[in-house]
Specification:
The structure holds three protein chains of three kinds. Chain A is α+β, with helices and mostly antiparallel strands. Chain A contains 17 helices and 20 strands. In chain B, α2 crosses α8. In chain B, 66% of the residues lie in helices and 0% in strands. The chains are: A alpha+beta, B mainly alpha, C alpha+beta.
């Protein structure tokens, strides 16, 4: 399907020199904007999660005029808030041989060698500054009695490098970013637009000059222009309908950017998180994550005998299969997420599943409670246990938790170079919205790290290299024809949704899409299934555009209308994910093709043919996208088969 | 998004009102004033109650005590000088206490909004004493007016003789509905103080896990002591345990 | 199970609202409250009626987007639980459930059950932060935080800004929300330099929009994170203490 002759090899603009010096060298070599000139620049930041709020606040502090946008009623609601377990940093406080290089190494290896070394190294470098910054901002991290910061362990690492604030680390970090942003709003450097959804990015002469938004309360379509646009709009796991993402998380911003010419990298690299509460019923609207930190103390097991439906307490120790500890003795229950998820899937497929629908595995705290006492477990995970009980009506202090993998994070996203700039000049992507740092699998507690690294440290340092070119050039006025045309197109699109007047709700189509995506492009993928999925998605898309029913008007708060636009984009994005999964004839990280496995059933990479980033280019509604390549070189972390044994 | 929210009162810290200082312009400051004057008033009520107990020692003791109050610190200050200082002090505390309560109540009424909940609110923490602070206060105020008219000025008691405190009390309390008024007022006061004595720690920011548990008990003991002490007198009179003396 | 819903419907902030009754039949006890409403909405859409608008995002009780008054309980009958975490097993077959938006003068109903809570953002913007520019932070271990203080700060910081406290308060007061932020930052050593300025600015902004605290304690019972009204006491003291402070002398160690 790929039209090879059009495919380009992409240049990531990685600075020269040893990896340890690249970032310093870059910051010295890059073009700057002097402080008194910064007020002449307008920057749009879409999204107010860790990356977006972080970038908007930091750019505001530096003196730029920032406009920040969120569809939520407050910038404190972004779904970064849902992250539970923690944030990694290479502080080596526990004295267990951690270092920047080890964090870098673990992240590249954990990502199954599909990330860009230079970016990951930079991420590890700034990780320590993130801890300093957030502590100073008042994030109430867990402390030792001596007043120093506490650490815990996460999957994919043999060191304790995860800083945490109970099971609410994401909340606390988002709130510090939100507060930093609030400070800039009060100072007048950031103008905040709440309940305002970006519907499209606007280009003039090939560069990004602004966005068009919809006020979700009044329905008004408005244009905003700026010298540069930053998309920090998060991931697209909601393509699966059921995921751990918030209900409103969507891929519209990055998808519209893709349709305007930005390349979309590794769309099929999605993370299925191993510890979520299993699906209960068909009406379920969302899946709830149980922090990976639980794997520090919980032991995962299934009945050794397939189809054993005795209650867990009646299954004696020797009839239990602690399969992670058995298969991966070195890392045990703390193997990376992709490995843990697939192992759970295999257990359930082999008939060892537990729970009423036989769709889970046990995560058992009996040993930990016996060893540490209930009080300690309560202190560490109390809020998670409560949440579990509220949802399932089972008490995890007495009955083992039931867990199963669920879509959680998308490593794929807009392709960006070392500057975090997409292939559209002036359009930047930060946080989960870009693809850059996690390769084919993200390690636990690295999402918060990357979001804040991009928002606080990387983007504010790299954006000047672009802005410096536009000194004293005013932004394109919003009555320019490029804005007027885009506004017109969007109004027509909205009218289209309202006028189909078919028979089914938006959720109906979203659920159907989600089913196809999780079955065929979820934890395991096959050529046959993916090809079938392409047909099915096309069919759902046809039905969607002819049989959708959205009631109400465009001039008021209309939640169905909002969702219609998002699902329309998910239908296209899902198709691209499937194409990418088909195209990548190997298994790596979260992308597991059943045709490519080792003898032990583990993912089998093909470094000879696929050690590159796939970056897809939109070519129009009816023509297939073109896949470009960014070759990946591994100078510092030698390519090897991942082993967690 | 277009903001549609309404502000309640943006001007109260500007203009002439800023002259009044934080204690009269901010809600928290006014709560402080309520708390501080509340402490003063309760201290007075307590001293008053202890003084009232002299009635059980007989007419001579009580009348002498009343006279002593009138001549406190005499001749350093004029006769009844200290008494009047107390009276003015009490009046000032009373006015501040009530004025704060009324201003805050009116503001809160607005803050709550015009549309109320349709479903009956299921209160979990707010108890009866708490929710009736305002009306309890009104009852206490009305009672005070009556009480002063009755036992200080003698307007409602035909047998009133200035200076004969003991006999005045007993002739008043021998009328059953007067006794009832006093008892009802003491119950209202007990409720008011039961919430107030706990609440005062909260308003003044004196909560501390070391003694938080005792706050409730303190409030109960205080309220009960006042209720039992003061109500015992009309009850004793009604049962004939206290009689008019010679 | 079958339940009857009486739901507040209001097309926009300018229009009058009123209750409309809906039947939700065949609801699973394991469904969450919002999943039940989702079902009702699907049926409404199928019938050609506009779905009920309500705010909800994370559905795991942490983002604070959701919140409705259910039978006179903010977030429903289960203590320490946001509406999105409430499950239908807390209701009985045949129940009539009254669903209303948060009510307070400062909160405008935008549509149906959706309210505008932007005054909360105003309170944070007034001073609910520690001023430290990115890049300017000292090493994380330069500041020691005694563990009990860190824990108390975390207790307060767990506020999700859902506004159930305001909805629960008979006075429409936002003291619990404001005090939680003041306590979160004020209990930490990092928050000390701005402590009194922050308290004054936040309290006065709060009082511009909301009623005053009468120590009812309803907010504490409504709070999905069970934040204690102790934080309000601390705020009360901090505010008045701030009025006596000579800010020029704040650097002195006592």
């Amino acid at each position: 399907m790929t039209t090879e002759h059009n495919a380009r090899v992409l240049d990531a603009k990685i600075p020269d020199g040893p990896i340890q010096e690249k970032w310093d060298k870059y910051r010295f070599d890059t073009k700057l904007v002097n402080p008194s000139n910064r007020r002449k620049y307008d920057i749009i930041v879409v999204g107010t999660g860790l990356a977006g709020a972080g970038a908007a606040a930091t750019l505001g502090e530096q003196g730029y005029n920032v406009k920040a946008f969120t569809y939520n009623d407050s910038s404190r609601r972004a779904h970064s808030i849902g992250a539970q377990g923690g944030i990694n940093a290479a502080k080596n406080y526990p004295n267990d041989n951690d270092s920047i290089f080890r964090l870098f190494y673990d992240t590249v290896k954990g990502g199954d060698y599909r990330s860009r070394e230079a970016n990951v190294y930079r991420l590890a470098q700034v990780s320590n500054e993130i801890i300093d910054q957030t502590v100073a901002q008042g994030a109430p991290y867990a402390r030792e009695y001596g007043g120093l910061l506490d650490n815990r362990s996460f999957g994919g690492a043999q060191v304790s490098r995860t800083f945490y604030a109970r099971g609410q680390t994401g909340q606390q970090l988002l709130l510090t970013a939100y507060q930093a942003l609030a400070r800039q709003v009060a100072a007048g450097s950031v103008e905040l637009f709440t309940r305002t959804e970006m519907l499209d990015v606007v280009l003039k002469d090939g560069r990004a000059v602004g966005i068009v938004t919809r006020d979700l309360i009044t329905g008004e379509i408005e244009s905003h222009s700026a010298h540069a646009v930053v998309l920090a709009t998060g991931g697209y796991s909601n393509v699966y309908f059921l995921s751990t993402n918030a209900m409103n998380c969507n891929g519209t911003a990055i998808w519209r950017a893709y349709r305007k010419g930005a390349l979309f990298a590794s769309p099929s690299f999605t993370q299925i998180h191993p510890t979520c509460i299993p699906v209960g019923d068909e009406f379920q609207s969302k899946l709830v994550l149980m922090s990976e930190s639980l794997r520090n103390d919980g032991r995962i097991w299934v009945p050794a005998k397939a189809g054993d439906d005795r209650p867990p307490k009646d299954i004696p120790e020797d009839e239990r299969d602690y399969y992670l500890e058995r298969m991966y003795p070195a890392f045990g229950n703390l193997v990376p997420r992709d490995v843990a998820s697939r192992a759970a899937m295999r257990m359930v497929q082999a008939g060892h599943g537990v729970g009423p629908l036989k769709n889970g595995v046990y995560l058992d705290f009996a040993d930990a409670i016996g060893r540490l006492g209930r009080k300690t477990i309560e202190d560490r995970y109390g809020n998670l246990f409560e949440m579990y009980e509220r949802i399932t009506d089972e008490n995890p202090y007495e009955v083992p938790m039931r867990i199963y993998p669920a879509p959680h994070y998308t490593m794929g996203g807009l392709w960006v170079d070392y500057n975090l700039e997409t292939t559209i000049p002036g359009l930047f992507a930060a946080g989960e919205a870009n693809f850059s740092d996690h390769g084919a699998n993200r390690l636990g507690a690295s999402a918060l790290m990357q979001g804040l690294a991009d928002g606080y440290f990387v983007l504010p340092a790299t954006i000047s290299s672009y802005l410096a070119n536009w000194l004293n050039v005013p932004p394109v006025p919003t009555d320019d024809e490029v804005f007027v045309e885009t506004e017109q197109e969007l109004k027509e699109r909205i009218d289209k949704f309202l006028s189909i007047n078919g028979t089914h709700t938006v959720d109906y189509f979203h659920r159907k899409l989600g089913k196809v995506m999780i079955d065929e492009c979820g934890m395991s993928r096959s050529r046959e299934g993916l090809e079938k999925a392409l047909e099915e998605i096309a069919e759902i898309k046809r039905d969607f555009w002819s049989d959708l029913r959205v009631l109400g008007t465009a001039e008021s708060l209309n939640q169905s209308l909002e969702r219609a636009g998002r699902v329309a984009d998910f239908l296209e994005l899902g198709e691209l994910m499937v194409r990418d999964a088909l195209d990548r004839e190997e298994s790596c990280g979260g992308h597991f093709r059943v045709e490519h496995v080792t003898e032990e059933g583990e993912a089998k990479r093909d470094d000879e043919n696929f050690a590159f980033v796939s970056a897809w280019e939109w070519t129009g509604e009816d023509s297939p996208p073109i896949r470009h390549k960014e070759p990946l070189e591994f100078e510092y972390v030698p390519l090897s088969q991942r082993s967690y044994k | 998004m277009t903001t549609t929210t309404r502000r309640l009162d943006v001007n109260r810290r500007s203009g002439w009102r800023s002259w009044l200082g934080p204690f009269f312009t901010s809600d928290i400051g006014m709560k402080w004033m309520m708390a501080l004057t509340g402490i003063g008033l309760v201290a007075y009520v307590l001293v008053h109650m202890i003084g009232n107990m002299k009635i059980y020692l007989g007419a001579e003791d009580l009348d002498h005590y009343a006279e002593a109050l009138r001549t406190l610190l005499y001749p350093i200050v004029p006769e009844t000088g200290v008494l009047w200082m107390f009276r003015f002090g009490l009046l000032a505390m009373f006015i501040i206490h009530m004025w704060s309560a009324i201003v805050l109540a009116l503001r809160n009424r607005r803050a709550r909004g015009k549309i109320r909940y349709t479903a009956k609110r299921q209160y979990l923490a707010a108890n009866y004493a708490n929710r009736t602070m305002l009306w309890g206060g009104v009852i206490i105020f009305l009672f005070l007016v009556y009480h002063i008219a009755d036992l200080t000025l003698g307007l409602t008691n035909p047998d009133f003789v200035a200076g004969e405190v003991y006999n005045n009390v007993i002739t008043s309390f021998q009328i059953w509905w007067v006794a009832l008024i006093y008892i009802v007022a003491q119950i209202a006061l007990a409720f008011h103080i039961y919430h107030g004595a706990w609440s005062v720690f909260q308003s003044l920011g004196l909560s501390n896990p070391r003694y938080d548990e005792w706050r409730r008990w303190l409030a109960v003991v205080f309220a009960l002591a006042l209720l039992i002490g003061n109500s015992s007198i009309p009850i004793a009179v009604q049962f004939g345990l206290l009689q008019v003396s010679g | 199970m079958d339940v009857t819903l009486r739901v507040w419907r209001q097309p926009d902030s300018a229009s009058e609202g009123g209750f409309v009754t809906y039947e939700a039949n065949g609801v699973s006890a394991d469904a969450s409250f919002f999943e039940m409403l989702d079902m009702v909405n699907e049926e409404l859409n199928d019938r050609g009626e506009e779905p009920i608008a309500f705010d909800s995002d994370c559905r795991e009780g942490i983002c604070g987007t959701c919140g409705v008054m259910i039978d006179g309980h903010p977030h429903g009958p289960q203590r320490g639980t946001a509406t999105c975490q409430l499950h239908m097993r807390k209701f009985k077959d045949g129940d009539t459930i009254v669903i209303e938006p948060w009510r307070a003068e400062a909160f405008t109903v935008v549509r149906d059950l959706v309210v505008d809570r932007s005054p909360f953002d105003k309170i944070i913007q007034a001073g609910g932060y520690i001023s430290v520019n990115v890049g300017a932070a000292p090493d994380a271990h330069d500041t020691l935080v005694p563990r009990p203080a860190a824990e108390a700060s975390m207790d307060a910081a767990s506020c999700i800004g859902c506004a159930a406290c305001v909805a629960a308060c008979p006075n429409g007061a936002a003291n619990l929300f404001t005090a939680a932020k003041i306590a979160h930052l004020g209990l930490l050593p990092q928050g000390q330099p701005e402590r009194y300025l922050r308290t004054v600015a936040m309290v006065e902004t709060m009082e511009d929009y909301f009623g005053s605290c009468r120590n009812y304690g309803e907010c504490e019972t409504a709070c999905p994170k069970s934040i204690s009204i102790d934080v309000i006491a601390w705020m009360n003291r901090d505010y008045v203490a701030a009025q006596w402070k000579n800010f020029r002398k704040q650097g002195q160690q006592v």
